[in-house]
Specification:
2 domains, alpha/beta, 12 helices, ATPase_NBD (chains A, B), EC 2.7.1.2 (chains A, B), nucleotide-binding (chains A, B), 14 strands, homodimer, 5-stranded mixed β-sheet, Nucleotidyltransferase, domain 5, ROK_glcA (chains A, B)
Chain lengths: 333, 333
């Protein structure tokens, strides 16, 4: 862009990924490339009252360090736990942050930094990140499912995030995969989250170990009341433990089934699996794909691809930053 | 709109709803109101070679009868069975029409009538109709499921139809609702279509009748090898037949479960149930809503409404006509 004979560099975006332990930040260019990234611990003391002031200070400090001012930025995008009012920029019910009352996150940050801000929930932000710069390949229709402590999701159709009438779109973790199955924290039974989250995998392990009669390191750990993690289950499956393989198979059968429901509804080009459990890689992806294909309608089976997420921990800040692209025209020179 | 001192009336749309038995037509105004509607039998003889010529003739005749010429219309929209190439305007694999080879439907109609045409599949057209003028209330996110001979569906998000990468979006009839359940025509087992279509209801009836030990008119009909229809099942359920009520309950449990998967994925404002089976009204809707609520995540359960379709047989022509709205600007005076 030229103005008065000078060539002006394109502006930057600021992405914030607010988590219960760490708050991640990045300065990102308009093409979604990370220019700088950093993080600070999330201070959840005093009902999380320091979270927003700490964010503002951290961004202001970083801008000063890099000799930037507000004119160098288009705006801020942020992903957060809890329920977001996207119009007002408020957040409520983010209990892991201590935010049980409505928080004026957006207005406070805009006042503090002089930049417009767009806020969405963390699963949607990560979905946008993978859609924009990761495994989503900017396909028109992409679904993102994240297997972490819980199971979350984000849905992009016709190139746009779907929120639903009550921000309930993407609640893939609460698709029922087993009638009268494990009791979920949401009050229902048999939700995917109880089988395919990090804690879900351990639940499946304990359930199957009871009936297992052979020799297995997993069974030894459980019988000895030692700690068991989903990571160990996948590691032992890779190393030939029979019970571990049965557990992985069961987890993937539920995940593949739930994703087939999503596939039969939307036939997205890509369904992207992210979150900590997805670090298991092909040990998770292959059997899940098999069960997905077994349950997907022909035209879906032949076209919708299951993929592992590519951006890891950066998906959140990149996707959050993409929310701020909407301010581009408002701020045009 | 004024031009040269005359007030020009707004233009019309033509909607075509092509079915295996009947082809329905309508002239529709830009607000979606039907001005004229009529239908002709669908001639599927000779591999359906007369279908398109018959359509052209029928529309041309009607235009002449009403003293219209092409300038009075924006364009044509059409819903059809089979697989549609929306860009080329071709249709293939509509076996109930005898169309097993690629048909140049769009180009032929445009050549014959001098009007642009947009084609989509019949379930999507009906979904658009209900979205535009029926139970959808033009909400941003609406899902339509049609319970007829089979079970089809259409998905609208952010106000736009979702097709998916291979036109497989809305294949709600092939969501698996019962592991190792009834064999479906698609080759999979336990598809919703095998439980909630008109033939599916009868299948459920026969299956439950085997185990039923009490007195039931349905059991008498089945044991006597007499004809049984889904309509009779719902009628008898309304009249206190115990087995009929068990059948309806089972059908609705599967339908409610499948719709909860759709709800947890998209949280649409409305999920609209249409097709012949939906003529059962509240006898179908109430238990389905109960099972939907039992399986939907809290934020979805509290916001997504299940509704009966409102347009009946007109949904197809109205929705098809809406496809032609995209020609409005091209054809502007």
């Amino acid at each position: 862009m030229k103005a008065g004979g000078f060539i002006l560099a394109s502006k930057r975006l600021i992405g914030i990924d607010l988590g219960g332990t760490t708050t991640k930040f990045a300065f990102i260019d308009e093409d979604g490339n990370i220019l700088t990234k950093w993080s600070i611990p999330t201070d959840i003391s005093d009902s999380g009252s320091q979270i927003v002031p700490n964010m503002i200070k951290s961004i202001a400090d970083q801008m000063r360090r890099e000799d930037y001012n507000t004119n160098d930025f288009i705006g801020i995008g942020m992903g957060t736990p809890g329920a977001v009012d996207r119009e007002k920029g408020t957040v409520v019910g983010a209990f892991n942050l201590g935010w049980d009352q409505v928080q004026q996150v957006g207005p406070t940050i805009t006042e503090g930094l002089g930049l417009p801000i767009a806020i969405d929930n963390d699963a949607n932000s990560a979905a946008l990140g993978e859609y924009w710069k990761g495994a989503g390949d900017k396909a028109d229709d992409v679904v993102f499912v994240t297997l972490g402590t819980g199971v979350g999701g984000g849905v992009v159709t016709n190139g746009k995030l779907v929120h639903g009438i009550n921000n309930g779109a993407g609640e893939i973790g609460h698709i029922c995969v087993q009638k009268n199955g494990f009791l979920c924290t949401c009050g229902k039974r048999g939700c995917l989250e109880q089988y395919a989250s990090a804690t879900g995998v351990v639940k499946v392990a304990k359930s199957l170990a009871k009936r297992f009669t052979g020799k297995s390191r997993i069974k030894e750990l459980i019988d000895g009341h030692e700690d068991l993690t989903s990571k160990m289950v996948f590691f032992l499956a890779d190393n030939g433990d029979i019970l571990a393989n049965q557990i992985v198979n069961e987890v993937c059968s539920y995940l593949g089934l739930a994703l087939s429901h999503v596939g039969n509804t939307l036939n997205p080009e890509n369904i992207i699996i992210g979150g900590g459990v997805s670090n298991a890689g092909n040990t998770l992806l292959q059997p899940t794909t098999r069960y997905f294909q077994e349950n997907a309608f022909k035209s879906v089976r032949d076209s919708t691809k299951l993929k592992l997420a590519q951006l890891g921990n950066d998906a959140g800040v990149i996707g959050a930053a993409s929310l701020a692209l909407k301010f581009k025209n408002d701020n045009a020179l």
